[in-house]
Design goal:
With 267 residues, the chain is of the alpha/beta class. It has helices at 15-26, 38-50, 66-79, 102-129, 155-175, 208-221, 230-241, 244-258; strands at 6-10, 30-35, 56-60, 84-87, 137-142, 180-187, 190-191, 206-207, 225-228. The protein has one domain (6-266): 3-Layer(aba) Sandwich (Rossmann fold). The chain is built from eight helices and nine strands. A seven-stranded parallel sheet has the order 3-2-1-4-5-6-9, sandwiched between helices. Helix 5 (155-175) links the parallel strand 5 (137-142) and strand 6. It is globular. The chain starts with 5 loop residues before the first strand and ends in a 9-residue tail after the last helix. The protein binds NADP nicotinamide-adenine-dinucleotide phosphate (NAP). NADP nicotinamide-adenine-dinucleotide phosphate is lined by residues 10-17, 35-37, 62-64, 88-92, 111, 142, 144, 187, 189-190, 192-195, 208.
């Protein structure tokens, strides 16, 4: 691998991760691309090298294989030094209201929360053991605006992203003075495989390319909390200050307008 600031991205095979890789490639960064599907990673690596990336290497890994992820990160750090780590891989499975969805919860928390914490804890432990001088590292965790309050019909996903967002906020305060900037990227709706076929309304939806471009540009500007699309900045502020009774009223109306969640017999 040729090196010109290395960016490692999980969930790079599609959607936001794929577009972030291209956005970093256009800015001349080297890339390490992680996901489970080899084909899409290979085509992405070729595309990134045609843009301005000096090199794009692929790693076909499930983020739940913590040991393998750690070994890969350790090797990349030893051989080249990681400058940016983007914890983007995520899942959002839908399920009917009358189903016992514990298994879905286990996988959602495993990918959206535990894997992210495992990767970040590992990276910061190896970075903090090194000499403080010239430490200039960035970690981006991709959460969601659904992390702000418990969204009806999205309890498991919303809770997994909320846990990650609170974790990111906490460590960002500790890590900043030590030369590690922790960024919470909380996007609104994006057109990706995750939202493909969704029947509910998705206000202010952005293309993955637009969201990625805005995010990468803000990360490089030094921001540590990023929300898109812009109306969501207002919505998030509004949701954060709304008292519980008012939020419950607002959310019930929102759920009725959407038509409510399905039952098993309807799916
Ligand atoms: N789309 C939205 O409206 C929206 C809104 C807010 C936040 N987000 C967040 O944005 C992030 C990117 O999602 P997206 O919208 O771009 O969806 P996407 O197109 O479905 O991409 C998800 C990515 O995560 C990877 N992934 C999933 N499980 C994995 C696993 N166990 N191991 C390794 N990689 C795994 C997938 O790759 P493989 O299948 O190849 O492994 C894929 O590259 C997620 O964290 C999502 O929660 C999305």
């Amino acid at each position: 691998m040729k090196k010109n600031q290395l960016v490692v991205i999980t969930g790079a095979s599609s959607g936001l991760g794929r577009e972030m890789a291209k956005s970093f490639a256009r800015r001349g960064k080297s890339l390490a691309l992680i996901a489970r599907r080899t084909g899409p990673l290979e085509s992405l690596a070729r595309e990134c090298e045609k843009l301005s990336s000096p090199s794009a290497d692929i790693f076909t890994i499930d983020v739940n294989s913590h040991q393998l992820v750690r070994e890969t990160l350790q090797k990349l750090e030893n051989d080249f030094g990681i400058d940016y780590f983007i914890a983007n891989a995520g899942v959002n499975d839908t399920y009917p209201i009358d189903q016992d969805s514990t298994k879905i919860a286990q996988n959602t928390f495993a990918v959206n929360t535990i894997a992210v914490i495992d990767q970040i804890e590992f990276l910061k432990s190896i970075w903090l053991k090194k000499d403080q001088k010239n430490r200039n590292k960035v970690i981006v965790g991709v959460t969601s605006i659904s992390a702000v309050r418990g969204l009806p019909e999205s309890g498991i996903y919303s809770a997994s992203k909320a846990a990650t967002a609170v974790y990111l906020e906490s460590i960002s305060i500790e890590c900043r003075p030590k030369g590690i900037r922790i960024v919470n990227f909380a996007p609104g709706f994006m057109k990706t495989e995750m939202t493909e076929g969704a029947t509910y309304s998705m206000p202010f939806i952005l293309s993955a390319q637009k969201a990625a471009e805005l995010c990468v540009s803000d990360v490089l500007k030094g921001k540590d909390f990023i929300i898109y699309a812009w109306p969501f900045k207002l919505i998030v502020y509004f949701l954060q200050v709304l008292p519980n009774w008012a939020y419950r009223l607002w959310a019930s109306v929102f759920m009725k307008l959407r038509g409510g969640r399905s039952f098993s017999s309807e799916t």
